[in-house]
Input
Amino acid sequence: MIGRLNHIAIAVPDLDAAVARYRDGLGARVSAPQALPEHGVTVVFIETGNTKVELMAPLGAQSPIAKFLERNPDGGMHHMCFEVEDIAAAVERLVGQGMRVLGGGRPRTGAHGVPVVFLHPKDFHGVLIELEETGTPLSNKHVRV
Output
C-alpha cells in the first residue's frame, strides 16, 4: 500500500535558525518558506536527493506544532510521510483494520497540493504517520469517507 518515504518532518521553534543550520552547516538546498494556515504551520523543504526533510514552525498560538514545542522546546521529529497511490482506498483499508485516521478521515490539501491524512501515533508505535497521495490535487479528487 505505501510507496516511497516522501519526507521526515521536524518541528522547530525558530524556522530561520533551523534553515541557517541546514543550509550553512550542511550545505543543503532549502525551499522558500510556505505558510499552510489550514495546518497551522510554516514549512520549508530540504532536498536530500532520495527524500526530503520538512522543517515546520508554528503559524499562530493554536498551531498543533506550538503544542508539540511546549512538550519539546528544542524541537524534534514530528512525523514521517509516505506516498500512496489512492488516499481514499488507503483510508478505507486502514479504518477497516481498526486504525485511527485523524481529522475524521477527511483528507486535506498538503504542502505539495495533494491530499494528505494523518494516522494516530498510538497505532504506529508512537510515530505520527502522514499519507500523501501521489499526483491528483484534492480539488480534482472525489474522496469517500
Observations:
- Residues 138-145 have pLDDT under 50 and may be disordered.
